[in-house]
Amino acid sequence: MPVTIAGMSETVNQPGILASGRTLGVIGAGVMGTTLIKGLLDAGLVSRRQVWATAKTQSTCDAVAENLGVQTTRDYRELVATAGIILVCCKPGQIGGVSAILQESGLRPDTMLVSILAGVSTEKLESLLPGEHVWVRAIPNTPCVVREGMTAICGGRGVTAEHLAIAERIFSSVGRCSVVEEHYCNAITALSGSGPAYMYLVMEALADAGVRVGLRRDLALELVAQTMLGSARMVQDSGRHPASLRDDVTTPAGCTIGGLLMLEDGKIRSVLARAVEEATRIVAELGKAAKPAGQKQAQ
Hints:
This protein is of the alpha/beta class. About 45% of the residues lie in helices and about 15% in strands. The chain has a nine-stranded mixed β-sheet, with helices on both faces.
């Protein structure tokens, strides 16, 4: 397979995350894969010469090489042995084939493997790749694209505090990162992984409401987006409970309490809770799509 690399100047600003002579591989250079590469490069945690990435099509490989200046290839077998860290960013149903390639390509036992596969446990990942390889499971979300992501990470068998610290540095380059216990992961996927979609739906509904009461659509959307952003920042920076902050806005006999009562009449709390509940159930099913290479997926 052809290998593509584009040359760009760079500066590594701080101590990196790779040992001398090792590389960082990204299997699945889609939106999240390329976002992580860009975050790591911009943070100075790796150099372009240390990074390689793979994608299903040559056109994607060419685009990633041109945009990010890293080595790309559709066939990464010869690159696996150099890797100190591999970020696995494929779909859950593809992990069986990826594991088979890693196993046959001289994967070193000290290579740290980081999976962002929804619903796939570290126990499942370990079963697909025999040996003492360490897996870190990560749950990022799409706001990582604008460096405002939220990622939760946990470790599988043999993962040390040093492994988790490296994973934290990786995902902190694109937002916030927290270490959690793995039994929370499906719920976290449903809440923060799927959460941006819930927020976009609420934003759309509020913007439509603004149009309904006479605002231009572009103005309504700007007002809603900045209001949601500012409200989230107040929760983060103040450390106060959202209910307490809500009380600051809710004056006696005012318009806000009237609006809140309408939302409660519409059972907004239970509807949002049910959405997270259903998404948690579905993400558990996604993990079942991870099967060894050659084994048929469930229909």
